[in-house]
Amino acid sequence: MTGELLFASVGVILFALGVAGVLLIGHLLRRVLAFNVMGSGAFLVLVGLAQRNGIADPVPQAMVLTGIVVAVAATALALALVRRLYVLTGKLELSQDDDE
Amino acid sequence: MMVWLILLPLLWASFAFLLGPGRGVWLAMAGLLAQLWLAYALAEEIVASGVAEHAVGGWGAPLGIDLVADGLSAAMLLLTQCVALPLAVYASAYFKRDDPAATYFWPLVGFLLAGLNALFLSADLFNSYVTLELLGLAAVGLVAAGGGAQQIASALRYLFATLVGSGAYLLGVALIYGTYGTVSTVTLTPLIGAGAPDLVWIAGGLMVVGLMLKTALFPFHFWLPPAHGGAPAPVSALLSAVVVKASFYLILRLWIGPFSSLTVAANLVVWLPALLGMLAVFWGSYQAIRAERLKMLVAYSTVAQLGYLFLIFPLLVSAGALQAVIMQVFAHGLAKAAMFAAAGTLIKATGQDTVAGLAGVAERLPVTLFAFGLAGVTLMGLPPSSGFLAKWQLIELALSQQYWVIAFVVLVGGLLAAVYVFRVLRQAFLLAPAGSVVMPVPRTLEWTAFVLAAASVLLGLRGVELMQLVGIT
Fold this sequence. Notes:
Chain A is mostly helical and 100 residues long. Chain A has a single domain, classed as Orthogonal Bundle (Helix Hairpins). Chain A has 3 helices and 2 strands. Chain A has helices at 3-24, 28-49, 58-89; strands spanning 51-52, 55-56. Chain A has a two-stranded antiparallel ribbon. Chain B has 2 domains: 1-266, no CATH class; 267-473, no CATH class. Chain B is built from 20 helices and 2 strands. A two-stranded antiparallel ribbon of chain B has the order 1-2. Chain B is globular. The A-B interface holds A 8, 11-12, 15, 18-19, 22-23, 28, 31, 35, 38-39, 41-43, 45-46, 48-50, 52, 57, 59-60, 63, 66-67, 70, 73-74, 77-78, 81-82, 84-85, 88-89, 94-95, 98-100 and B 62, 126, 129-130, 133, 137, 140-141, 144, 147-150, 152-157, 159-160, 163-164, 167-168, 170-171, 173-175, 177-179, 181, 222, 225-226, 229, 291-293, 296.
């Protein structure tokens, strides 16, 4: 197995684990962490797949850098909302009964 | 010109933020007016001299960022600014002084519009991802702005849905880049042929499904009703009218651009979104007919109306399909903005948000109710509204290819829309129970909703220009 394929497969596995976490986990903090695992998986695929004969391609690295900034912003927003929800309700889970 | 469509909202949003909580109304108005003019001028330019391109900062692709505007982008830009300006006027009258929901309303709206405009202008898959995220984060911020536990919960649900959606999209982009070494839509279109490797199919599937989640296509619609139904009325109107259309626009772009040879090669693939669209029409309408709360009714109606957009995919091979779907985007955008605005006014006046509590408002708020009714006319697809034009074209296309089922769904969907619209109107015309109070509301609230609703109907008479614009590629 070549290096790029190894990176990409690990990335896909991480992504799948992350998606499963975001969808299945009730605890909000762990869901935010799962989202970060998911994002890292996608970044790993982006950087890992795009090597040509072992030489790294700079364009996806720039993309991942942008992606990390976006992920940090999203995490911050999610944490702020989770914190607010905790202050208001004392719970760290979304209840199921509020979708009418 | 194109750059200013993105820079201008960023600028006024940042200044509005610096001015402090709740400030910046006039900045926003001036900015929106200028944006509307820019979008109109851009559309004129495209009609006169074809597709416009701009390399940001003089750096062209592949290193720099290219902005491209064709007829489709110009039409979406025009719709966005046309909806945003009346809604901004509405919002300025809707929020009271020191309303906590208005604290960061103007900056967030500015960032939202910058994201939208940038999305409609981007010419590569990765920039589309960045603009999608910008848009999503601003929209979540707006949903949460009310600050109540319910609103925070729906904002979080919305946030997770939109993050998973754009995550799937990003993974697709990564696979495409790994295969072809480029993300520019223009370069990719000839590269992806019918014999593309399986990896590209997987990438395409991930991207389209991720975007469907963000467009709230059935069965991914679970996040939409609480988010749109729970937000303040101007926010709901903006989200339902244009924000969900942004991810749909991207699906459409991918479908007729880079993935066009894939979708032609696999005949069955085109029926998957259409099938989900049909289910969305039925399920959304059914939930709207059952809804007890007025804003939930309007939000579920959005789920149903988004379904129509996806009926177009089996028909995209024939000429005029793009025009039909954009007409539906316009019809729903204007009508839904008007409907949420009118619903917000009714809720403000009656002090509660159930459909049952609307008895007697016909007498007290005739303009608002008329606006609601006019928007309903467009959603039902009665002539001469733009909704009629869109559905007419859809049915014509479906019949010419003998896809009876699509024509049938469009017709039944119109009838179902009539049921939930008349449910509201009937209740409004009942006599008010003794002791019910209808508070006076600012005139601005009533008339902005009316302007939007009237625009959605009158567009039906001026549809030719719009269709001409969309046809320019």
